[in-house]
Amino acid sequence: MFNKTNKTLINDITVELNKLFSLESVNLTRLINIEIRHNSFILLFEISKKQNVYVKIINDKTSSLSKAIKNHDSISKGLHEYNSLLWINKNLNFLTNINTIEPITYLSKFNAIVTKEIISFQLYKNLHYQNIETTLFSIGSWLYEFHQKQGYEYTFVSQADSLLEQIDIEYKEILQGSYTPQNISFGIGLNNFDIRDVLINKNDVYLLDLNTTHEIVPHLQDVGRFLASLELAYWGTAKFGIKTVPKSLANAFLDGYCYQQKSKDLRKTANWFAARYIFKHITRNNKRINDTNKIYLKGYYQLFAKPDLEKIVQNKLLP
Description:
- This protein is α+β, with helices and mostly antiparallel strands and about 325 residues long.
- It is about 45% helix and about 20% strand.
- Helix 6 packs antiparallel against helix 7 (about 245-260) and helix 8 packs antiparallel against helix 9.
């Protein structure tokens, strides 16, 4: 990661941050940490003893920091995410305890979004947080307002086939068999927003990575993804399959989203989209497990992890 090219690039970003914050040479910005995520590089810089900032560089199928700042698709996605954050901060800043991360600037030379660091904890790592149901209700309400502000149109979807790409056939059949034809609202949604994008700072809630979709999508796709992410909060840890996520958490989020539009069909369809997301999750993991040579991992997945995922759908989402 820290080859000569990347070190030079980080030095260049440091110089740009010094200019941005009008720092003297004696107070040079320094890199504290770098995190590599599946779709971005996150660099944490110390600006002063009281202020740190994040520099996020979108990584679209590139393995190198230096390549990410030149990749056309990465640049397009980075600028789109920056503009999404600007729009959201301008149009959805009226909910008192819900905050969205306000971008400080966009460094076009590096395809980098600069935001301040929020001292907080990640909600998905503390599902016993005392105000969690109130928090989830507020997030559901915020998501509903986001969809309303973006605009929508209802489309009658008589069959689920068009919504079932990238899902193994056995799970497609389950979803098709449980689907009820109905009008579904379509509009601009959010890319990958889920429980992992929620930070808590005292009584304030901060939402991260709010990147809007380019295309029109079912709004309940966002709702279902968030519900599924709650159920997958322990995925990848030793707690998965042992500790269960209380149903009251999903109910609180749905109560918030459905507060102004009370409908049994709405809740039922949201759970259907959550089941769809988990079946997609299983499909992706089936491929990963088939490609691995680790026998113990295959055994654990087939005997424990996969059945536990299927039980979540059967017992909670499509009973």
